């Protein structure tokens, strides 16, 4: 398209200025124009870098939208430094170091622009500029869509970012734009991002979707306010706040998020009003760190697609839920860690597959006038230091109303537990708790079931229509002595006229394959271990023979020396067993092991198989694996560490106790660290229960050598050390090939060679994950494959299954 002419209509008041002139270039026309003049640009392509420094109107011909292309070879195609009107132009930028449209000053109007660029940013606003940008479209797959920086502002109305190589809209360095009815999608970074002290973003009626990062990201003391906005179909979290960020969401909708719908940390503050959060893969609200706070009013969180708690509060954070609804989720509210707190008022928690309210690790929850319905467990106060209050709450149709275990000490006042299918209230394992003016009705089990001599207070409580009895106090009761059993005052029951001790109940048995009941495990980020069972399940016959398990071990990629060591140990145990059966002496074989090596080298997998082999040989009853680390063994005060360590041993009874990063129990600057108490307890238990529990300690090679040398008592308990070497590039390739085969993908010609080169080149620092890195690489390839194939209208089978070298992620 040839360059056209520029017609300038001069609009001055004097007669000689009211004329029309034509110019061969835009630069000449702009030079000749004065404030108020109208520059009408003929259709064509203009290879010029325009600088608008007067309050003129620059526009394409009437009815010719998009026919005028501003497309210089490099630099900034369009710079605006005055209160001009720029309308109906097509701007193309090719300079990766410069914006396509730069607004530096004044209050200009940009109307109907289409910016197609491979620039640092599509539209960039800086400094004192306050533009009004209406109905503009930005397509910039190489950089930021719209950037507002250095104190800039302005209003963006009905604009659309159709693609961006980084953030869709980025606000930094004290900028403060307002977005109205805008759409941001197909960004490789976050949809909307604001960062830096003084930066502020306001969005009304906007939509963010199909972005690879977070939908909205606010960090570094920035603030944002979103009203009537939609955030959905992101690859990362829906909303992310970090480092003193402040965000308000009013009448917004966050949905179809594969990760956390909202994640905030590091003293960030979030206020949600009349906002819905649904269809999220991890947490609906994930709140971390001291000083971090969420205030939610009249909000709804529901329809989780994953296996994580809907609301997760940990590491000293605070959440307030007022008049909210949480429903159709695996778990509703989890509060963890000392200093963490949840205050829930006049809210509904319902249709919860596991636990509605879980309080652990010293956290606190306060629920007032709430309704908890149709959950496996209504409220569970799990361990020492965990507590809070349930006040005037109704727990209806749950399997168990309230559980208190391991020294937790909540206060339950004026609450009603109606129609539980197991027990209204269950207290065990040293739990305490005060129940005042509470009522249990229609229980299919007991009303109040207190075992293990727990020192629970029941005052002015009542039970009605409880199938097994109103009150059950096993192993201690109201008359069981000063130091055991519950304290019962003025309690009544329609079965007996009062509370009394009765015979112990039949033991409750739970196997690993059952749905979690009274004592299921905490799901989510914190741990994979199971809570202790009320009574141990009967030993089961191993599902596989040792030969079958060894076959699975042999099928693992690499680990040749590990396989030899495990086979040699297995052979010693097997021959020793046969010698005993023949009446001969058998060599004593210490079965405890030390695993050393980097993360992701298969230590946990081999530990699981080792336990299964020992069970198949009859050495262990069950052969299950219980994985723990320092946080699971070391308590916060004298005496608590021994209790935690003993509990871990009890969970591993008949199986393998796997202690990951065991060297953390003996830090180099130990001082008064309680890790030594855990080690001392371990040494004794390993001797006392040497025939019922196998212990495997694991960690980095150098650190484990130090650990064993510092603690010779521990070293003497282990028979051998097995070193897990790092996987080589060929072995990492085989792991990817296995993953591809398992998920019905194939490597295209040349992809295997590219993977080998990738794994050879990838940095292998302390964070390198070996086999985990291979799996993450495969997952990243599948994501990039999906992004590519999604653009194909009618993909073939090859399109859907073949992974190419181009699908490899960039090297970290």
Automatic annotation (TrEMBL):
<dbReference type="Pfam" id="PF13229">
    <property type="entry name" value="Beta_helix"/>
</dbReference>
<dbReference type="InterPro" id="IPR050773">
    <property type="entry name" value="CbxX/CfxQ_RuBisCO_ESX"/>
</dbReference>
<dbReference type="InterPro" id="IPR041627">
    <property type="entry name" value="AAA_lid_6"/>
</dbReference>
<keyword id="KW-0067">ATP-binding</keyword>
<dbReference type="InterPro" id="IPR000641">
    <property type="entry name" value="CbxX/CfxQ"/>
</dbReference>
<dbReference type="Pfam" id="PF00004">
    <property type="entry name" value="AAA"/>
</dbReference>
<feature type="domain" description="Carbohydrate-binding/sugar hydrolysis">
    <location>
        <begin position="313"/>
        <end position="474"/>
    </location>
</feature>
<dbReference type="GO" id="GO:0016887">
    <property type="term" value="F:ATP hydrolysis activity"/>
</dbReference>
<dbReference type="Pfam" id="PF17866">
    <property type="entry name" value="AAA_lid_6"/>
</dbReference>
<dbReference type="InterPro" id="IPR003593">
    <property type="entry name" value="AAA+_ATPase"/>
</dbReference>
<dbReference type="InterPro" id="IPR006626">
    <property type="entry name" value="PbH1"/>
</dbReference>
<dbReference type="InterPro" id="IPR006633">
    <property type="entry name" value="Carb-bd_sugar_hydrolysis-dom"/>
</dbReference>
<dbReference type="InterPro" id="IPR039448">
    <property type="entry name" value="Beta_helix"/>
</dbReference>
<dbReference type="InterPro" id="IPR003959">
    <property type="entry name" value="ATPase_AAA_core"/>
</dbReference>
<comment type="similarity">
    <text>Belongs to the CbxX/CfxQ family.</text>
</comment>
<feature type="domain" description="AAA+ ATPase">
    <location>
        <begin position="589"/>
        <end position="728"/>
    </location>
</feature>
<feature type="domain" description="Carbohydrate-binding/sugar hydrolysis">
    <location>
        <begin position="41"/>
        <end position="172"/>
    </location>
</feature>
<keyword id="KW-0547">Nucleotide-binding</keyword>
<dbReference type="InterPro" id="IPR027417">
    <property type="entry name" value="P-loop_NTPase"/>
</dbReference>
<feature type="region of interest" description="Disordered">
    <location>
        <begin position="473"/>
        <end position="530"/>
    </location>
</feature>
<dbReference type="InterPro" id="IPR011050">
    <property type="entry name" value="Pectin_lyase_fold/virulence"/>
</dbReference>
<dbReference type="GO" id="GO:0005524">
    <property type="term" value="F:ATP binding"/>
</dbReference>
<dbReference type="InterPro" id="IPR012334">
    <property type="entry name" value="Pectin_lyas_fold"/>
</dbReference>
<keyword id="KW-0677">Repeat</keyword>
<protein>
    <submittedName>
        <fullName>Right-handed parallel beta-helix repeat-containing protein</fullName>
    </submittedName>
</protein>
């Amino acid at each position: 398209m040839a360059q056209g002419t520029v017609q300038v209509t001069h609009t001055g008041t004097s007669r000689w200025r009211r004329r029309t002139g034509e110019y061969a270039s835009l630069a000449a026309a702009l030079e000749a124009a004065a404030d108020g003049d109208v520059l009408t640009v003929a259709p064509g392509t203009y290879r010029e870098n325009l600088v608008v420094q007067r309050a003129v109107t620059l526009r394409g011909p009437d009815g010719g939208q998009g026919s005028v292309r501003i497309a210089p070879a490099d630099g900034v195609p369009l710079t605006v430094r005055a209160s001009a009107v720029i309308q109906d132009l097509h701007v193309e930028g090719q300079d990766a170091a410069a914006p396509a449209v730069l607004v530096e000053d004044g209050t200009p109007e940009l109307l109907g622009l289409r910016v197609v660029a491979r620039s640092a940013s599509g539209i960039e606003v800086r400094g004192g500029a306050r533009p009004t940008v209406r109905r503009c479209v930005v397509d910039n797959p190489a950089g930021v869509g719209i950037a507002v920086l250095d104190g800039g502002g302005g209003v963006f109305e009905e604009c659309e970012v159709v693609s961006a190589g980084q953030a869709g809209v980025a606000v930094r360095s004290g900028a403060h734009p307002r977005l109205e009815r805008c759409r941001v999608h197909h960004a490789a970074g976050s949809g909307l991002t604001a960062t830096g002290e003084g930066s502020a973003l306001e969005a009304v009626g906007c939509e963010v979707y199909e972005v690879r990062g977070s939908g909205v990201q606010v960090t570094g003391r920035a603030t944002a306010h979103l009203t009537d906005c939609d955030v959905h179909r992101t690859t990362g979290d829906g909303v992310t706040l970090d480092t003193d960020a402040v965000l308000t969401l009013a009448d917004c909708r966050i949905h179809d998020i594969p990760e956390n719908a909202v994640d905030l940390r590091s003293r960030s503050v979030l206020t949600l009003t009349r906002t819905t959060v649904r269809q999220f893969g991890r947490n609906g609200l994930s709140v971390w760190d001291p000083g971090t706070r969420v205030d939610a009013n009249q909000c709804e969180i529901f329809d989780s697609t994953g296996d994580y708690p809907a609301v997760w509060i940990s590491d000293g954070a605070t959440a307030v839920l007022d008049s909210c609804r949480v429903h159709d989720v695996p778990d509703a509210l989890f509060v963890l860690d000392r200093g963490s707190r949840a205050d829930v008022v006049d809210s509904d928690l319902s249709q919860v597959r596991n636990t509605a309210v879980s309080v652990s690790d010293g956290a606190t929850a306060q629920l007032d006038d709430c309704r908890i319905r149709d959950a496996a467990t209504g409220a569970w106060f799990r361990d020492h230091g965990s507590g809070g209050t349930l006040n005037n709450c109704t727990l209806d149709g749950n399997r168990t109303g309230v559980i208190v275990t391991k020294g937790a000490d909540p206060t339950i006042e004026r609450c009603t537990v109606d129609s539980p299918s197991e027990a209204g209230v269950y207290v065990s394992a040293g739990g305490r708790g005060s129940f005042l003016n509470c009522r249990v009705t229609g229980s299919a089990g007991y009303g109040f079931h207190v075992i293990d001599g727990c020192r629970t207070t029941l005052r002015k409580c009542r039970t009605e229509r409880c199938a097994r009895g109103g009150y059950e106090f096993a192993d201690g009761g109201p008359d069981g002595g000063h130091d055991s059993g519950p304290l019962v005052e003025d309690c009544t029951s329609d079965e007996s006229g009062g509370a009394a001790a009765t015979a112990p109940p039949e033991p409750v048995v739970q196997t690993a394959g059952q749905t979690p009941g009274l004592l299921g495990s905490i799901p989510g980020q914190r741990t994979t271990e199971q809570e202790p069972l009320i009574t141990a399940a009967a030993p089961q016959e191993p599902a596989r023979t040792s030969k079958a398990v060894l076959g699975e071990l042999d099928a693992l990629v690499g680990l040749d020396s590990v396989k030899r060591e495990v086979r040699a140990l297995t052979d010693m145990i097997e021959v020793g067993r046969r010698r005993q059966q023949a009446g001969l002496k058998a060599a004593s074989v210490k079965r405890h092991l030390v695993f050393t090596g980097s993360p992701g080298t298969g230590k946990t997998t081999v530990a699981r198989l080792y336990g299964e082999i020992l069970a198949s040989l009859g050495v262990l009853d069950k052969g299950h694996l219980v994985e723990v680390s320092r946080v699971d063994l070391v308590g916060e005060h004298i005496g608590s560490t021994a209790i935690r360590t003993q509990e871990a041993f009890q969970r591993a009874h008949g199986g393998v106790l796997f202690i990951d990063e065991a060297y953390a129990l003996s830090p180099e600057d130990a001082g008064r660290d309680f890790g030594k108490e855990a080690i001392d307890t371990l040494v004794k238990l390993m001797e006392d229960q040497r025939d019922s529990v196998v212990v495997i300690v694991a960690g980095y090679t150098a650190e484990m050598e130090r650990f064993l040398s510092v603690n010779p008592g521990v070293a003497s308990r282990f028979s051998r050390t097995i070193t897990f070497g790092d996987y080589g590039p060929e072995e990492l390739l085989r792991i990817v090939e296995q993953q591809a085969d398992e998920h019905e993908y194939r490597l295209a010609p040349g992809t295997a060679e590219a993977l080998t080169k990738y794994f050879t080149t990838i940095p292998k620092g302390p964070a390198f994950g070996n086999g985990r890195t291979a799996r993450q690489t495969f997952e990243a390839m599948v994501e990039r494959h999906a992004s590519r194939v999604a653009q194909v209208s009618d993909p073939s089978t090859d399109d859907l299954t073949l992974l190419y070298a181009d699908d490899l992620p960039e090297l970290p």
